[in-house]
Amino acid sequence: MPKRQNTPADIPPITDFESCQRARSALFRRLTDQLEIFRVCPHRNCKRMRACQDARGACFHAVLQAMPDEVRRSFAYAMQNRANGLDPDEAIAQAEARIAAERARYGR
After folding, report:
1. How far apart are CA 23 and CA 4, in angstroms?
2. Of 40 and 13, which is predicted with more confidence?
3. Using CA atoms, how far apart are residues 65 and 45, in angstroms rounded to an integer?
4. Cα–Cα distance between 37 and 28 in angstroms, integer?
């Protein structure tokens, strides 16, 4: 059985900008795997391995660019809310409320 990839232990500790840049590709791959983006990835290796095989995180970036702006903003707000300590359901609810408020205010 192959060694499991993209585990938290694979990600180096982040202590400064350079270490953040070194960890960036591992973080993108981990997030891509958690979201199971490999299911829609055009690369056969990703589908076959059931995990992102691109060191640059290109799959994740492609999905973000393909998302409608409103969905991308909602995702970003939910991530910010999670970073601020909210549980997942509450983070998503507040993100959706913020998007609704923006839509009402700006009409987009």
Report:
1. 18
2. 40
3. 21
4. 11
